[in-house]
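Open question from group meeting: does this chain pack into something compact, or does most of it stay loose? Before anyone orders reagents, we agreed to write out a predicted structure and look at it together. Recording both the input and the output here so the notebook holds the full record.
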Amino acid sequence: MLEKVKENLSGADPRFMTSLARGLEVLRTFENRTTLTVSQAAKMAGLPRSAVARCLFTLEQLGYVAATGTTYSLRPAMLPLARAFAVGNPLARDGQRVVDAVRDRLGESCSLAMFDSRSGHSQVVYVCRAETARIISVPLFSGSTLPSYSTSNGRVLLSGLNDVALNAFLAMAPFPAYTSKTLTSAHALRAELVRIQTQGWALTDGEFEAGLRSIAVPVCDASGSVAAAINLATQSNQRQLDWLTNTALPELQAAAAHLSRSSFR
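Structure tokens returned:
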């Protein structure tokens, strides 16, 4: 990610702070990891070991990470940064109550997602999450990221892109297949996104993980642009597809309309 940013800037913009960017990339390596060594962080960040060691030392001195022997872990000082987004962003602020309510009414996990701005349009990040039980092999929380092309939330967000942004994203195809059902070609994904844009919702069935079904709808801002997506996910042995479209879909549409009104009034 860091090299891509630097490449886009072509080294011509003196405002870009490489040392700060490296520090943020090092922090990013802690996603889904409780502890890391310098060597592990360097490998994951794609940075020189010496640079990562300096970043971690600085973060330790500032109180953002703690060192225990040769390993590092995040400290509570990181939490106010996350809280600032949760309080300052209207969708994040209003969304948790809404996904909790959908979860409680339907008895299935519900999430609110946006594009992960660090990765362009290739990933979504969960802004709010209400879970009933673990329904996929990896635990999901607020802050978790998933690929956009194979998830219902992601496809709703992709369907809201303008032609230039969508073409740039589809140029990265073919995409990795998570299951035999995953749409991996640009042609197939474009056709599905056109269908989603027309009908106003997205449904995936076993494309990200076998047995996982999910349905999502857009949350639009005051201008009508897609700002986020809200979805409900379940296991195929628990819910039929017609339950998703007949029961879950109207609930999600009502929740999305409420969020659009409350967050962008």
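Observations to bring back to the group:
The two ends are 35 Å apart (CA to CA).
The first helix runs from residue 2 to 9.
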